[in-house]
Design goal:
By secondary structure, the protein is α/β, with parallel strands linked by helices. The protein contains 13 helices and 12 strands. The strands form 2 sheets. It has an 8-stranded mixed β-sheet, with helices on both faces.
Length: about 350
Amino acid sequence: MMSETDIKSESMNTGANQGMNPAVAEGVLGAEQKAKSAEVLLELKNVRVQFKGKGRKPFVAVNDVSFQIHKGETFGLVGETGSGKTSIGRAIVRINETAAGEILFKGRRINGVIPKELDREVTRKIQMIFQDPMASLNERAKVDYIVSEGLYNIRGFRDEAERRAKVEKALLEVGLLPEFASRFPHEFSGGQRQRIGIARALIMEPEFIIADEPISSLDVSIRAQVLNLLLDLQKKKGLTYLFISHDLSVVRFIADRIAVMYKGRLVELAETEELFHSPLHPYTRALLSAIPVPDPRIEKKKKVLVYDPSCHDYSKDQPRWVEIKKGHFVLANNAEIEQYLAKIDAGGLANEFLWLQ
């Protein structure tokens, strides 16, 4: 039986033989391996998240955001620091309150005031993997308690023997030994601590996991291990991910669709390869142009774009969230929609980011 690494290597070689860039071949493989489903697991409708500022006017972190996540897919959410990505994730798990809009899980509203039974279900079915594994783990608690803390909250075990068995199983699933349960977080490496955070989420047997930049604080050599672990768990358990990151190259590897955020608003959403091949919004194009290229000759010639919000004239014609082509959404006003459609019809986007192909 071939391992996941062997399968990826073989498929990448096949793509290379057909003239396809290995990075693209790997991305295409990831999309093919994931089961697509028409069932909407999570939906955000015009969600707004705001916080009290120093003055009377609140600070709006998320403004009128709407999207759907289908069962079994990995939905990537990208943007610069402070764009509101984490605020969306924390609103879904009910850490942040929403000021407006609806968050629906399996068709039921889970934001605002909800019944106690539904709150209990959300706690079990939706879990979050946090960005900093050290800050999110209790330094004074042993791994045994950290991993099973969620079980204590919902009383998800009959007796102590069952709880210990669940902890052991969760640790094994993320590649850690059961005897690690008696240790403290400071005794582990960064990658191992992040695996503990993943085990803490898995023990609840969730359907939907929010991964908030789970590899940004890890060494490059460890990142691939964690990403492959997440992919392997998704295949085995049929999980659905919201993968939050600022690194488009990482999101390209793992995500089926990508949404781009800027200052609290979605500016573009499309399937992964569609977004890389035909980016429409100037901010998306700027992000793509900033991706480093391993070839120094191409890197020297590459033109890095700088996004200037003043390029939009919204004084009279306000932007709206529109489906510019099937499955490809963009934030634009009427004049910009005409420009984007003209570019698509003329095929003017195909050669703009050839170095990413």
